[in-house]
Design a protein that fits this description.
Helix content: 40-55%
Number of strands: 10
Oligomer: single chain
Structural class: alpha/beta
Shape: globular
Distance between the termini: 27 Å
Bound molecules: acetoacetyl-coenzyme A
Length: 262
């Protein structure tokens, strides 16, 4: 219902708990991110993000692959002037503009552009056998969807350099230790666990969830002083919401809050 006329994302839809689920579905190419697939992804993300019933999104792939990178056959014959003039892959950044949290649920290969998309999400959880990598160096290029910039922020310089310069893959446990992965689950439970986590987030006050995501993301862009100021202003603003009154009243009355997202 969300992705009209586009075939490569399926089972997109919402759960009772207010979670929007997007599943990359291009199995023959291990979910390689051709332009059409990425257009579908952005379209599905925007549709779910603007749905009032939804409080959190989950993005997943298959058991074998979250996504094996940008589509190499589509890219191979592109020229410098085309890549430069069209600002190739800049538009992928649209996926980072969603206002509700996105959980990446990663099973299998999560490589190149796939790893970059996972890092565009707000929380990454992984199946025990997930494999992360930035293998672009093996193709004579470098990451082009944020790999050199987001990976260093997630796991630090030495590990980011190691992954980008050798093209070696890292397993789920290593990536959890390094800080990119928040939690690990058995592969078969991963999507259920992601939806469970999403349901918990969706049960909170929507405005505070959106502001929290916005404030954390601002920390990547500005100085500590500016970030602290931004956080405080968001915090102050939440005192204008019904959810703040309800949340604090419910705590003092020792009951569950009934958030109305206002
Ligand atoms: N682009 C296009 N096709 C891809 C692909 C990709 N990134 N990754 C896999 N495929 C295709 C394969 O060509 C193959 O197609 P055919 O069946 O038609 O031959 C199919 O998916 C299955 O792949 P394999 O047979 O290779 O499967 P495997 O299990 O032996 O290996 C793998 C799996 C290790 C992930 C291997 O497929 C691989 O190394 N893929 C490429 C990974 C990569 O280099 N990604 C970076 C891309 S560049 C990028 O992402 C740029 C950027 O930063 C934006």
């Amino acid at each position: 219902a969300y992705v009209k006329g586009q075939v490569r994302i399926h089972r997109s839809g919402k759960t009772e708990g207010g979670v929007g689920l997007i599943r990359l579905n291009r199995p023959k190419a291990l979910n390689a991110l051709c332009d059409d697939l990425f257009k579908d992804l952005v379209h599905a993300g925007q549709a779910l993000d603007s749905d009032d019933d939804i409080g959190c999104l989950v993005l997943t792939g298959s058991t074998k692959a979250f996504a094996a990178g940008a589509d190499i056959s589509e890219m191979k014959d592109r020229t410098f002037d085309h890549a430069y003039k069209t600002n190739m892959f800049a538009w992928w950044g649209q996926f980072t503009k969603l206002s509700k949290p996105v959980i990446a649920a990663v099973n299998g290969f999560c490589l190149g552009g796939g790893c970059e998309v996972a890092m565009m999400c707000d929380i990454v959880i992984a199946g025990e056998k997930a494999r992360f990598g930035q293998p672009e160096i093996n193709l004579g290029v470098i990451p082009g969807g944020g790999g050199t910039q987001r990976l260093i922020r997630a796991i630090g310089k030495s590990k980011a350099m190691y992954m980008c310069l050798t093209g070696d893959m890292m397993g789920a446990e290593d990536m959890e230790r390094a800080g990119l992965v928040a939690k690990i689950f058995p592969p078969d439970d991963l999507v259920d666990e992601a939806v469970k986590m999403g349901t918990k987030i969706a049960s909170k006050g929507r405005i505070s969830v959106m502001m929290c995501k916005e404030a954390i993301n601002v920390s990547q862009e500005v100085s500590l002083e500016e970030g602290l100021r931004f956080e405080r202003r968001m915090f102050h603003a939440l005192f204008a919401t019904a959810d703040q009154k309800e949340g604090m009243e419910a705590f003092l009355e020792k009951r569950e809050p009934n958030f109305t997202h206002k």
